[in-house]
Queue: 2 jobs
Job 1
Amino acid sequence: MRDTAKTEAILTWYDRHARDMPWRVSPADKKAGVRPDPYRVWMSEIMLQQTTVAAVTDYFNRFTSRWPTVQHLAEAEDADVMAMWAGLGYYARARNLLKCARAVVALGGFPQTYDALLKLPGIGPYTAAAVASIAFDEAAPVMDGNVERVMARVYDEHTPLPAAKPVLYDHTATLTPQDRPGDYAQAVMDLGATICTPRNPACGICPWRDICQAQMNGTAAELPKKTPKKPKPTRHGIVYIARRGDGAFLLETRPDKGLLGGMLGWPTSDWSDAPTPAPPFDADWQKHPEQALHTFTHFHLKLDIMVACVGDIVPDRGTFHPKHRFQPADLPTVMRKAFDLCQGTWRND
């Protein structure tokens, strides 16, 4: 049974307080007949996975300026898309972005239902629900981290996450309306991002303050509860940065599968407890005094940096990129960190 009072209250709030985002159609524009572009909705949702709005906005604007339609993106060179994505993290998303764009073009456009969207490469249940709801007005329940937190508080749910996900999803489904489901989904996400925040929720200005069970019981600040995470392990590796006398740098494209798949970067060893040295050629490699430190989703990484200045040499792997074609910004963050640490090696060249 749907709770229309809760839904109407938050939609009224959203009509007044919706955040302005480059991929969003405002409530006023929707009333004037402007429809959300499924390409922009999909692009934003892929970029926003595990990332903040603040971090994504510039990337979104650059991507949609260079590739304004799904057709343009589908025709893009893989290397150009991977370079544009550099620094945003979770690089499998960039590979799937291209696969999905090409699948959509082959279909003649974006599917308009949750079930059909779910069949596309790189689209999981959350993204399928978000695109179906926001772009096509399907009443598909949309639940991200913000929505989980809001539902846990509104219903005073004390079961720790992730075990609480099914019951929180049921609450989300109960509240999702048949009319304006996309606006409702964005309203709850906005509520979680701006008012029902992880710490110090602003309950006094919340449109659901009078119906929030956690607010009534004084438990809002402690919800949602989470099962403690295991400490992340630390892995080690070796990165090899070689510069030729003419300023060219040795780079290689990493395998499509695995971390940083398909990205351009420095040759490295394996990343493990005891990595095996794997220099791309014999040279007078010098160890840099500092390590590049980076944290991935499941582990911390410490990279020893080996540096070499060489003449005209044929590497066992990788390709020397001329100085005028080398853009540090095209590197994944961990590779950029290694480069930044040892720039002084060539500063006076």
Job 2
Amino acid sequence: MSDDLVFYTNPMSRGRIVRWMLEEIGQPYRTEILAYGPPMRAPAYLAVNPMGKVPALRHGAAVVTEAAAICAYLADAFPAAGLAPAPRDPLRGAYYRWLFFGAGPVEAVVSDTALGVTVPPDKEAMVGYGSKDRVMAVLEAAVGQGDYLLGERFSAADVYLGSELSWGMAFGVLEKRPALERYVARIEARPAAIRARETDDALLPPGGAA
């Protein structure tokens, strides 16, 4: 399989998460910027992602969509970057836990809060995250166990879940708790995170906001 990496994104999308991940693995990649609207609905791009949204990644013959899946794929495809525990490493369980906690409960809480959706207490058992307060408590405890979600080891789970925390707190949909703010500041100071942020900010349209 060709090692060519093609990254489909928009600087005002979840593609910013994948950009950071790509910078962490340190491999060359080509970026295809798609505008919202017709370009994302064009037949050529729908062949890549039938959902008509970004991000998406092509790696030779492989195509991956969904930001969390792309992060997990890149971590396994380029193990030398050290962004995922080996399959038999005991930390692999925690790695999966936090990666998918971000893609499930945290994503749902962020979306529901942004849309003004409140789950009645008697209906909490019907949603995957139960309650926003419970999710926030779990997140606060998770980042208090060490510098990263896996303790002292940075991983793709930090890229994905950390990006969600950063966005959620910046836009007021997640509470700014001190432990979460310290964690986000720590991971966003990584050189790869800075490079990714500067690259995407430079691509924003006039008046655009990160």
